[in-house]
Structures are given as C-alpha cells and as structure tokens.
Structure prediction request, 458 residues.
Amino acid sequence: MDILSHLSLSPLFEGLPSGHLEALAMIVVDQDVNRGELIFSEGDNGKGFYVVVSGRVKIFKVSSEGKEQILHIFGPGEPFGEVPVFAGRQFPANAEAMEKSRVFFFPRAAFIDLIKANPELALNMLAVLSMRLRRFTVLIEDLSLKEVPGRLAAYLLYLSESKQGTRHLELDITKTQLASLLGTIPETLSRILGRMNKRGLIETEGPRIRILDMEGLKELAEAGVWIPD
Amino acid sequence: MDILSHLSLSPLFEGLPSGHLEALAMIVVDQDVNRGELIFSEGDNGKGFYVVVSGRVKIFKVSSEGKEQILHIFGPGEPFGEVPVFAGRQFPANAEAMEKSRVFFFPRAAFIDLIKANPELALNMLAVLSMRLRRFTVLIEDLSLKEVPGRLAAYLLYLSESKQGTRHLELDITKTQLASLLGTIPETLSRILGRMNKRGLIETEGPRIRILDMEGLKELAEAGVWIPD
DNA sequence: CGTGGCCTTGATAAAGTTCAAGAGCCGTGG
DNA sequence: CCACGGCTCTTGAACTTTATCAAGGCCACG
Prediction:
C-alpha cells in the first residue's frame, strides 16, 4: 500500500485537500521497528512526530526503581510524540513498539509549514491533543481518586463499550502490561481479578474475561472502592 | 484597563496582528467571579473557553467520596477549559475561582473562525495544549511512580526553580490545597513536612519554607521514596 | 469573644507492594 | 521431538505506606 492511502486513513488528516496530502507524503519518513524496539526515549530531542501505520506502540514512563507506567497504547492511524513539535524541548516519555510495527515520521519544520497553510490540519491536530488531555484527566482521576479495583472495573467497562457492549472480552495485552496501564503491579492485578471472580462479577479464563454482573462492575467503577461483602 | 491590552498580555495571543486582537476583543465576554464560585462543572457542555485576567482559578476533580484532586492552578494570562472547544463534548473537570477573579470567555464558534484565519493563533494554542500534556505526563508519573515525600520534594524544587533557585519559599496556597495538588490529604502532608524538618531537609514556619538541603531534596524527588535514616 | 476553617498529632485500619516460590506455556536448539 | 530456559501468571506472608477517625490548638473574622 502506498503512503498516500495510509495517510488518508488517519483521522489526523481527515478532510485535507489531496494536494496537501501529497505534500505530506513528500515529507514522511517510512520506518520499520521490531517488537521491543525503542522509537524514542524520554529526554530525546524531538525533531518531529510519528503516526502508527501498523502494529502497536506503547508510550510509557519508568521510575528510578524500574516500575513502568503505560500512558497510551496506540494503534494504526494514531499519532504520537507531538508534544515537542509544538512546545519545543524533549519527549516527555518513552515510545516502544509492542510488536513488529511500521510508523511514519513527520519532520517538525515541514509539518509546521503545512499547518500554517492549512487551518483544517491545525484544527485536526488541536482535536487530537484535546482528546488526549481528556484521557489524561481521566487517568489522573483514576490514579488519585480510585483504588485498583475501581480502575480495573472502569477499564473492563471501557473494553466492553468499545466492542458494542459485549460481555465477552479478550485482552490483547498481557496482564503485566494491563497492570502497568492501571498503575499497579501484576501481583495486585491477579489478586483483584481473583476477588472479582469470587464475587461473581466476572469469569476469567486466561486472556478471556466474561462479564457476569455489568451493574456490579459499574457500581465499582463509579465508587472507586469495593462495596462491602 | 481595557480588554485589548489584557489580551495582548496573554501568551496565547502573542504575535497576533492587531486587527485580529481587535476581532478577539469583539467576541469576549467579560466575567467577574467571587471566591469559591464555580465557573463550570464537569459534564457541562462547553460552549467556549476562558482566560484568567486577574485572580486564580483551580481546575479539579472530585471523587464520589468527596476527595479532591487539583489538576491545575491558573493565574493571569492563562487559558482554561479549551478541551471541549476542539474535542467537542463536555468539560472533563470543574473550575472554581480561588479568590475574587476576572475571566474572559471566548465563544467557541467565533474563536474557531479566528483560528482558521490565523495560523499563528493555531500554533499558539497547539503550544498551550502541548505544554499542558507535558505537565500531565509529569503529574501521572508522580502519582503512580513516586510516593508522597517524592512528590512534595519535586514540588518544592519546582517552586524554588520558578523563583530563580531561591531557598526561601512562600506557599501561596493553603496546605490543604497543596495536599490536594499532590494527590494526598492534609494529615499526610503535615506528617511528611514534619519528617522533612526532622531530617534537616527543610525548615517550616507557617506558609514559609526554607530549603536547608537542596541536594537531599533532589535525591528524594529523583528516587521518589525516602532514603533510609 | 465565639465560631469555623486550617493545621497538627496520635491510634487504628486498609490497601498495596515486596519478596519468595511454584506452576503453566511457548519457542528454540540440540 | 523433546528438553530447556525464559517469561507470565498466581499465591502466600511480611511489611510499608497511606487513609481514616478523633481530638486539640491556633488564628482570623464577624
């Protein structure tokens, strides 16, 4: 598939005149990365941003003791690493391919010229950043105002909603990664899944999770803490 | 002071041709709010965004149990409530005046027209949102990867840096609010300030904090946990 | 001069992490 | 083809951090 058709699939470039898409195609750098490969590290100078073409990329922070907090997991069409493009300075976090992936790199200067020439592109980028802020707001709320069971319940409901409300979920990340996404560790996640099982909220079978009590899960996500036995 | 000169003071409107500033001045709604007054609530429909003219505004979330997490404290010149303008939907958090304040309100549609006509304004707004994302990234890292002493140390160092590295700090918010900003409660904050005193890291006297051991604080902020006695 | 908010301190309890050990699973290479 | 090593996942026990509940002091403002 050629670069142009990939570009047109990304929400970021929606509604752009084809002339501008062609201009974009001229400036992209096509890049293949292997599973586990770092795309950039926190503190690197950002000379441009990326868009996932295929595969998955995780954005994360690491503590001095090695604990990891995943901020995002991005799939095809989603841009990442834009902060230094507009705010200057370095990347605020790390980016790593979770599987063999293909990404497009957009050099900063050329992209800014395109934005100046095309307000629609600017508005699209503003929308992307705004949605990201919204998601961070939720993540911060979860981390500071909810306990782990509440965060897990919210995540399961989110998964369910993003699949038309199905009760049969299939994790497409390891439980270790899910723990990192929820701001905890695998041991804690394992115990809480166990408790949810015992309480009849869910039924787990490896990476498959069946929601038994949607209402109970909603209460839990809402309250942020366990409701007494 | 007239609206025009206030606008020119905000970084958001830096570098705009005076014609556009005048256009902006035409669409703003000037608004006075008293201490403790809500400017908007989470879930309200966002029909525009705001800029602080004078006073201070806090953006915060509240848990179902009433615990509060402050996301930002904004002062003169800083915009807030922009997310719904570009991403649509509702405000993701609450905004409340911390003291008698004056704010400008910019209706969404008129502002978007201005952006379309002025790429410089778009780039300024992109810079604002990007910096906000950067700050959230740090907040998330702190909440999930550091313990309260580490967060407090980081905050004190931030205060010091923002005042040219002085060792004499003066809190301009109550300790209860500081606790909320750090994602904890007043009791815990009080205990940790006490421990920092005992260890000779700082010296407190009401809202005045003197840094005695800058290096020690940096270690603490870096490690995120206490270093053994 | 009383009242409400803010701050501090203590005792207690809950949640989560750490450390340790063992089971299951999978791909690689002999 | 199977054994090995590595990784994920689970479970238990001890420990640490933080929140909760309760009480008292302080200060500012009406």
In short: The CA atoms of residues 63 and 69 of chain A lie 8 Å apart.
